[in-house]
């Protein structure tokens, strides 16, 4: 008998599906959907660029260290002045490599990239919630319309079939409502924190790269006390 009731309910929903079903409209969701569209920003390209920057700098640091070691080896038997220049080059290579691999890279990952990844993950999650919410809303609208069709003619109401329809509406609403609320509240939170979500990693990146470049510059200055001054004078080709 239960199978018969389910079949009747499914048949009613199928008939409703072929008609235009009134759509559940939540003004809060409509506003949140508009807001989400405005604040949607795919930061995956930015994340990829930062990862590529990290990789390139690490390659440069490794190559620089190898170059410094080779120079030091090649000039091991050279005059003292040449050996000093080779040692200065090796010293810079070591410091540049250490600053890049032990300072910049470990700090950029948690303080810049991880924050952007967290933002991107939330954007992706909300896109999934929006899709799931739409599917749940469609099912809820169908079952609600089916129930209304049963109630449209009280004289022909089958109590068992009516109860089945009510249970279906309740079940579908329980699936739809949490998704609807999740999207609305999460978009609001994302909007409120959007400026800080971008501002913090951007400031962190500026701070870290500034410290990094200043320390690299300090190491470069040691060349001025080892190499002749005219080496640092730029002469344009004629």
TrEMBL record:
Gene Ontology CC: one annotated term: actin cytoskeleton
Keyword Cytoplasm: yes
GO biological process, one term: actin cortical patch localization
Descriptive protein name: BAR domain-containing protein
Localization, UniProt: Cytoplasm
Keywords from the named record: Cytoplasm
């Amino acid at each position: 008998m239960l199978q018969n009731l389910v079949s009747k309910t499914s048949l009613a929903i199928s008939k409703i599906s072929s008609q235009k079903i009134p759509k559940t409209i939540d003004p809060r969701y409509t506003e949140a959907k508009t807001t989400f569209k405005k604040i949607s920003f795919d930061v995956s390209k930015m994340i990829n660029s930062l990862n590529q920057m990290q990789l390139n700098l690490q390659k440069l640091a490794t190559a620089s260290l190898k170059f410094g070691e080779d120079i030091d080896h090649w000039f091991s038997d050279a005059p003292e002045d040449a050996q000093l220049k080779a040692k200065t080059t090796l010293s810079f290579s070591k410091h540049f490599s250490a600053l890049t691999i032990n300072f910049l890279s470990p700090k950029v990952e948690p303080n810049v990239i991880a924050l952007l990844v967290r933002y991107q993950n939330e954007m992706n999650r909300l896109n999934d919630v929006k899709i799931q919410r739409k599917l749940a809303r469609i099912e809820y609208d169908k079952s609600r319309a089916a129930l209304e069709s049963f109630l449209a003619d009280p004289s022909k109401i089958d109590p068992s079939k009516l109860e089945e329809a009510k249970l279906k509406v309740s079940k579908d609403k329980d699936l739809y409502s949490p998704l609807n609320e999740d999207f609305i509240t999460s978009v609001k939170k994302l909007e409120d924190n959007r400026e800080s979500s971008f501002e913090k990693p951007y400031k962190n990146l500026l701070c870290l790269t500034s410290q990094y470049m200043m320390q690299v510059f300090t190491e470069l200055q040691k060349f001025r006390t080892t190499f002749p001054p005219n080496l640092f004078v730029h002469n344009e080709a004629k």
